[in-house]
Design goal:
The protein is built from six helices and seven strands. The strands form two sheets. Strands 1-2-3-4-5 form a five-stranded antiparallel β-sheet, with no helix packed on it. Strands 6-7 form a two-stranded antiparallel ribbon. The radius of gyration is 31 Å and the shape is elongated.
Length: 207
């Protein structure tokens, strides 16, 4: 889940829960979590103890933190840090990263665990249905706009099926409320010694 989505959840006062995702990294290099963020001074501190101050914010909302190449050039941990030709380590942090970190803490709460358990019944089931029945295994069209149209059309079909299921369920419940189940008595036949089968009669009362 991206930081803008988490910010949107907080703005709408929705209790969001996101799953744990282990970030990929190149073998032999440091994890991003090994670079500590200094919130008070708005900078990162690398495993060698050097500071990466704020540099700029790019167009997609990520703040960039850059190391001093004059220091990194002679650092013994450089080979585990970056392959940059100018010996500069760059870390990014979204302007709404704080929202994502707050939402991420919900996963370990009792309420968060309960909500996350519903994922396989709601979101995952919807994705599986779209993949298996609505052609989402592959993109049938080219260009982002056409693929977006395909996704929206499949979502519309899924919503129509869900509406039909809800209406059918309501109609069935309405019918069941009008039905009374009366069990028949167990009786002995005069011609033989066998018992008759228990019978049930459905009586539909007026609506």
């Amino acid at each position: 889940m991206t930081a803008p989505i988490c910010k949107g959840l907080e703005d709408r006062q929705l209790y969001g829960v996101i799953g744990y995702r282990r970030l990929n990294r190149k073998k032999g290099y440091f994890y991003k979590r090994q670079y500590l963020y200094d919130r008070y001074n708005d900078r990162y501190v690398c495993p060698a103890g050097e500071r990466l101050p704020y540099s700029t914010t790019n167009r997609i909302g990520y703040r960039e933190y850059k190391s001093d190449p004059r220091v990194c050039k002679h650092c013994p941990l450089l080979i585990q840090c970056t392959q940059s030709a100018n010996h500069t380590k760059v870390l990014t942090r979204h302007v709404w990263q704080d929202s994502k970190e707050r939402i991420d803490t919900h996963r370990n709460t009792d309420a968060g665990k309960k909500i996350y358990g519903w994922r396989k019944e709601t979101a995952e089931r919807s994705f599986a249905d779209a993949k298996q029945l609505h052609g989402h295994r592959y993109a049938r069209l080219r260009s982002l706009d056409k693929v977006r149209e395909q996704c929206l059309l499949a979502a519309a079909f899924q919503n129509m099926k869900k509406i039909a299921q809800i209406k059918a369920r309501k109609a069935l419940l309405s019918l069941l409320r009008r039905i009374r189940l009366l069990p028949g008595r167990l009786s002995r036949s005069s011609s033989d010694t066998k018992y008759c089968h228990r019978q049930y009669y459905f009586i539909i009362s007026p609506a």
